[in-house]
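This part of the workshop introduces the protein records we will be handling. An example says more than a description, so a record of this kind follows:
>
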Amino acid sequence: MYLGIDLGTSEVKALVVDESGAIVASHSAPLTIQRPQPHWSEQAPQAWWEATDYLMTTLREKCGQHWSAIKAIGLSGQMHGAVLLDDGGEVIRPAILWNDTRSAQECVELEEIAPELHQVAGNLAMPGFTAPKLLWVRRHEPENFARTATVLLPKDYLRYRMTGKKISDMSDAAGTLWLDVARRDWSDALLAKCGLSRRHMPALVEGCEVSATLEPQLAARWGLNPSVPVAGGGGDNAVSAIGVGAVSPGDAFISLGTSGVLFVVTDAYRPAPQSAVHAFCHVLPNLWHQMSVMLSAASCLQWFCRLVGVTESALLEEIAQLSEKKKPPRRCFCRTCPASARRITTRMPAVCSGG
């Protein structure tokens, strides 16, 4: 039996599978996004943890006697978010999420002060990435920046609460703009450009490696063996690639979730910043991937359904029943909801009037 936990943007999902990969039980817990100002997108890490804790209680009830047979835990989650911890391991401020676009000016600054960025990190500086967020915090919240002892990615905060260890994996770390993606190690030079160093970063493991084991007290509360290992895991798209079998060079897939993704596995580090294509480490050793992403895909549908008071499934079923004649002509809307105002993989300004 194996337990998987995925920290998404709209919910935390968990499932238990048996030795053959068949699903034994699954459940999810919703999350909300706070947008206190235009272009901001934040969540409370404590809410992630409370949702995860609730899921463990729920799945334990669903699995009954099989629950204690769990052998290992896998982690995946939304990428790029910045969780700031102080010296005591306490959260300093709400996590700044991947779809937060406040740091557009800091992206310009990072491109200027780090000419090696494209070759080392394999990506353009964009507001979605972690590094510009820390530059924003340094400029606008200097007290919080000074208190920052560790920067964790979202799923790695859950790992920290589960194991007491500050650890990340290569695929998720590649989305920070602080990783030397070819070498699969932190770049001291890029960290320094943001006023940080290795001491602010978690240790790194490959996604398929054991990162740590459960803290004994938590294991007892969850009804699991404290020797249960937690895998390195990975960023949401890289882990999805494993799930659909995209594990060899040339394998590719399209994913439509909150964001939309085109993902291709490569056998070497192939940065292509001139095309605004992301180059990241894969979850597996000695593999990388290229990826093109849009901030909004299914979330646009969710936004529209809230406006007209219908569920996504009901709307899609109604559309499927329409004849080709009744379907409206295909059009491109460049300005709809705020979340779709810009693509991740372009250098379009983050500011959009909407409407």
